[in-house]
Amino acid sequence: MNAPALTKMTKVEVVVSGSHAPAVRELIQSIGATGFTSVSGVSGLGHNGYHQGRLLFNQQAALELLITVVPESKT
How far apart are CA 62 and CA 73, in angstroms? Predict the structure, then answer.
C-alpha cells in the first residue's frame, strides 16, 4: 500500500471586523485556497484592548476569524 503524495501547507488565520470579512474571503480564494473556515463573534485582547465577541444586532462590527491552508509556494 502506497502513501499518497502530501503537499506541505501553511495555515493562515486572519481576524478582521465583519465589514472587512468579504474582502478577505475574496483574497483567500484569489490565492488558490479551495476552502476556508469562518468563525464570527470572536472576542479577545489585543492592541486596541478587549473586544467583546457578542453583538446582538450589528454583525458588521463583530470580529470574524477566517482560517485556511495554502501551499507553501503561495505564501
Answer: 32
Residue 60 DSSP code: T
Instruction: Report yes or no: 25 and 54 within 8 Å, Cβ to Cβ.
Output: no
Predicted confidence band of residue 19 (pLDDT cuts 50, 70, 90): confident
CA dist 54 → 8, 40, 42, 66 (Å): 36, 9, 8, 17
Quote the pTM value. Answer: 0.77
CA 67, chain centre distance (Å): 3
2 or 60: which leads in pLDDT: 2
User: Who contacts 37 (Cβ-Cβ below 8 Å, separation ≥6)?
Assistant: 66, 67, 68
Reported in sequence order, the residue ranges of the chain that DSSP labels E, i.e. its strands, are: 9-17, 37-42, 44-46, 49-51, 63-71
